[in-house]
Amino acid sequence: MLRGRMKISLRDFRHVVWDWNGTLLDDLWLCMESLDALLRRAGKPDIDVATYQRIFNFPVIDVYRALGFDTSPASFAAMSREFMDYYEARRLECTLQKGARKFIHEVHALGISQSVLSAYRHDYLTSIIAEHDLERYFVHLSGNDDIFANDKSRRALGHLKKLGIPAEFVLYVGDTLHDVEAARAMGVRCVLIDHGTHAHQSRERLLSAGVPVISEYAELL
Known about the structure:
alpha/beta, two-stranded antiparallel ribbon, 9 helices, 8 strands, 41% helix, 16% strand, disordered N terminus
């Protein structure tokens, strides 16, 4: 059920900005396995879903810090490369979230344009969207220029300017508290989607943001 100050209908907007990882791509399991590889090498126990959802944050260096890793620049860079090597080797095993492809098509059919603003490295983002045969649905893709999943709110306003659509007609759909920060940087409305056991952050954390939280894409229609 949608929670928040008011229900949001897609028909009130001309454009949807999507987050990618977690929002459209079901990659929680792969992120956890990639993180487990680092934990095991450090002699630490694997992470469970509840712990992951509780500590996951942006920038992701905070996740490593919460798990007790050395987050000095050299160590963090090495861990990031190892994480991404594991993730990229298996990323084609990830599927889209349930109902994502159908909903993206429905949004397109309504004449509402779509784009993606992601913390994923830009070339990885463009290639994985092509691998899922979705590139024709998005008028603009914006990813990071590195693998460190830094604050994407710094790119948010530039993304909006690239679209050339007034902020009041743009809706941002994400799955983490950082997506709310990015939406606020753009000056646009935001909705968060809770994918339950496939979500990167718990529903409790999402509800704390004070924006509507949905459990299914169709709640936006």
